[in-house]
Design goal:
mainly alpha, two-stranded antiparallel sheet, 2 strands, globular
Length: 417
């Protein structure tokens, strides 16, 4: 290996840090900046003295560090959303999450079909356009101080519901794309194996919680970290061997450990690794994209996907909010807040790449994520103004008042009877 490998990795980290500082100054999400700085360098870039912006020698190492970033991102999400919390989420969240997934997934399938893609590519596109970015959504809610808003519980519930859908969908899709199964029986067998493995890991994991509480009662921080990380990497790596995405293996480990009494200590341990390797993940994704390939079909496809996503998200938000009894304005906030796409869309694109699917999926996902990673926080920030403009056209408030009055009258009649 090239003797400047450490210097190259240091240069990459410096560029990532620079992108982060710029995004902080602009008070914007760091994700698009990480991807953009990665796109700006790479094999198409240049070399000045020892500053090799092509990252030819270190590309494989940076890619591997990015894979570790994916593991930590999903592992942390599992820690945040335990199996117990998912069960207690409530009927309204299940209803709202189902509405959101059905609308956006169906629109993704229609988009892929309309663009003339083969079946496997259509399924990947639907996955790319369905799942919102938990990282961006959570950051926006905190930055705009909306954690106490009435719609925030539904937003977080939909994110949790998406995580469950993602786990099931990637398990099924990885069985189809990575196993190379061409027959319906082979696909179903791979999907059943993946789902059976996932359910077994969750059930067995929850049964082992009392035992895990005792095993993880370790005073040494060093040993504690080694035990946690060995479990994470072993299970994630084993998952990949049976055609379950390694990221989902990491998510499952997080869901199980979230049930233990050591979850806060694990979160504190993981956060620095999640942030560091997660940043490298977005940079490494950008590194694989040549900006010169972003024109033409990929650009037009991503623009069409963005328009469909904006419409689908707003519609899903209004219907999900209505199902939970929220006001039209709060419902509109749901759709405008969870419109951002990020890490999960990139994971889906990488799954397509690993399965040898059409190369256009990578630049398509890059442009799509960039557009919505930028638009999402802006739409959330200006949600009040956007709602007022749309209300003038669609009369949301007037219809809500009419519907409320009819419901009140019907209730009054029933009480009098």
């Amino acid at each position: 290996m090239h003797h400047y490998i450490v210097f190259e990795v240091g240069l990459a980290i410096a560029l990532i840090a620079l992108a982060g500082l710029v995004s902080t100054k602009l008070r914007f999400s760091v994700i698009p900046f990480y991807i953009l700085i990665g796109m700006a360098v790479g094999p198409h870039a240049f070399k000045i003295w020892h500053l090799d912006f092509r990252f030819i020698e270190s590309a494989s190492l940076i890619e591997f560090m990015g894979r570790i970033g994916v593991l930590f991102l999903l592992f942390y999400l599992g820690l945040e959303f335990s199996v117990g919390r998912l069960v207690k989420a409530g009927r309204s969240i299940v209803s709202g999450g189902t509405i959101y997934i059905l609308i956006n997934f169906t629109l993704g399938l229609v988009l892929g079909w309309a663009l003339g893609f083969p079946l496997e590519e259509i399924l990947v596109i639907a996955g790319i356009t369905t799942i919102s970015s938990s990282a961006i959504v959570a950051k926006v809610l905190v930055d705009l101080k909306r954690t106490a808003n009435p719609e925030t519980e539904m937003i977080l519930g939909i994110i949790m519901f998406e995580d469950v859908f993602l786990a099931v969908y990637i398990s099924i899709l990885s069985g189809l794309v990575l196993s190379g199964s061409s027959s319906l029986g082979g696909v179903l067998l791979s999907a059943l194996l993946a789902l059976g493995y996932m359910l077994a890991l969750l059930v067995i994991g929850r049964k082992l919680v009392p035992w895990l509480n005792r095993v993880l009662n370790i005073r040494s921080s060093e040993l504690f970290a080694l035990v946690i990380f060995s479990a994470l990497f072993l299970i994630a790596g084993f998952s990949e061997t049976i055609h379950v995405a390694e990221a989902i293996g990491a998510l499952l480990v997080g869901l199980v450990l979230a049930e233990t009494e050591h979850v806060k200590r694990i979160e504190k341990l993981v956060i620095p690794f999640r942030d560091f390797f997660g940043a490298i993940f977005f940079f490494s994704f950008g590194l694989t994209i040549d900006p010169l390939t972003l024109g033409g079909e990929a650009l037009w496809y991503s623009l069409a996907a963005v328009i469909i996503t904006l419409i689908g998200n707003f519609t899903a938000g209004m219907l999900a909010g209505r199902s939970a009894g929220l006001s039209p304005r709060s419902s509109s906030n749901i759709g405008l807040t969870i419109v951002s796409r990020g890490e999960f869309s990139i994971i889906m694109a990488n799954l397509g790449k690993a399965g040898g699917l059409l190369a256009i999926l990578q630049p398509f996902a890059a442009m799509y994520v960039l557009m919505l990673a930028i638009l999402g926080p802006l739409l959330t920030k200006e949600s009040k103004m956007i709602y007022k403009l749309l209300d003038k056209v669609f009369k949301f408030e007037k219809r809500h008042l009419t519907r409320t009055a009819k419901q009140a009258a019907a209730t009054s009649v029933r009480e009098n009877e």
